[in-house]
Each structure stands twice: as structure tokens, then as C-alpha cells.
Write a structure and sequence with these properties.
Layout (H helix, E strand, L loop, with lengths): L3 E10 L2 E11 L4 E5 L6 H8 L7 E6 L2 E2 L5 H11 E4 L11 H11 L5 H10 L15 H12 L6 E5 L7 H18 L2 E6 L10 E4 L4 E4 L1
Parallel strand pairs: 3-8, 3-9, 6-7, 7-8
Antiparallel strand pairs: 1-2, 1-4, 4-5, 9-10
Amino acid sequence: MSQIEVKNVSKSYGKKKVLDSVSFNVDKGEILLIEGRSGIGKTTLLNIMAGIDHPDEGTVIIEGEDIFKMSEDKRAKFRLEKIGIIFQQMNLIEDLNVMENIALPLKLAGKKWKERVDELLKYMKIENLKYEMPTSLSGGEMQRCAIARAIANEPEILIADEPTSNLDDENTKNISELFTRINKEMGTTIIIATHDPRINHIASEIINLAREEKNEG
């Protein structure tokens, strides 16, 4: 059984249909890239897969559970425990330093956080930025902080929205290698929405949203 099943998902905003009966499966341990031009619905699809947004039609089943049959509270708890999210704008909280940003999901889950945060700072090679504020970070540093926060609760699924679109070639290479490392060392299923061909080589599967085709990478 697939870890994630996206079944006939459609979504419209007003008269504009951004997703039209999209279906695909994701197996555990895959790195899946969802490609397509800007405005094609990639972010909307990720938000639906994470249970943040609701489809007009269709559903998403994760590990045998229909996430849209859950209550809002149960779905939020499920997301906190099972799914890490890296938003396109990274959404780091400007009033919190790097350590505090990474600790946030651990605190929300009621877990001890200091040792885990130190472990993640080392894993991301940003130990020296522990007390820095997000506004003082480079793009690559901000992305490493956002990734650390997303995997803090050791989620089984990591969702990333355009994680390299604003990075130069060197940082893109570093972030790509980091995703591969997380996938292999932690067994995390990774789903990335992107229009950046520089990261195609890390994919085990690629979906082109415009054609809804799934091919082996």
C-alpha cells in the first residue's frame, strides 16, 4: 500500500480551477518532485496534501487514513506528528532566534527540545547561528533553519514548496544534498514542489502537474 494516495483532487478559487481531478500515489521513502509552471497549482496541492487546505472534490489518504474525515483538531495533531512543512517564504518567526524557531514544533508537541535542537543545529551545520535572528541570515542559512524546524519532530513526510527557487547554484547544491541525506539517513518521504530543474537529479519520481504524468527520475 502506498504511503500517500491523492485521489481525484480538484480545487477552484472563484471561477478559476487550479486543480482538476489530480491523482497519484507516493511510496514510503520516495523523493517526489511536483513540477509545473508558476500558478499551475503546486502550492495548493501541497497545502491539500498537508491538510492545511480542503479540496473541493477528492481526498488525500495518508497511511490508510483519509485526512479529510478527521476533525480539525485531529488533523492538526496528525500534521504536527507526521508531516514537516517548508513553506515557500520559509515563514521563520522574526521575533525568535534560530534556536527558538527550530524548537517551536517540539514545544507545540510537548517534547523536550534543547538536546534535539542542538542535534539539528549540528546536523544542519549552523551551530554558530544558534542565537542569530532570521533577518541576519543569508538565504541558504534561512533555508537550513526552516528545514531543521520542519524535521524537528522526526516526521515521516517532509513537504517543501520551492525550496531552492531563490538560492544560487552553490546553495541549491547544498540544499539538494541535504534533502538526499535526510531521505537516506532518516527514511523520510520527501515531496517537493518546484520549477527548478537544478534539483531534478535527486528525484525518484517526477510529476508534471500540467500533464499529471509520473515518471521515474
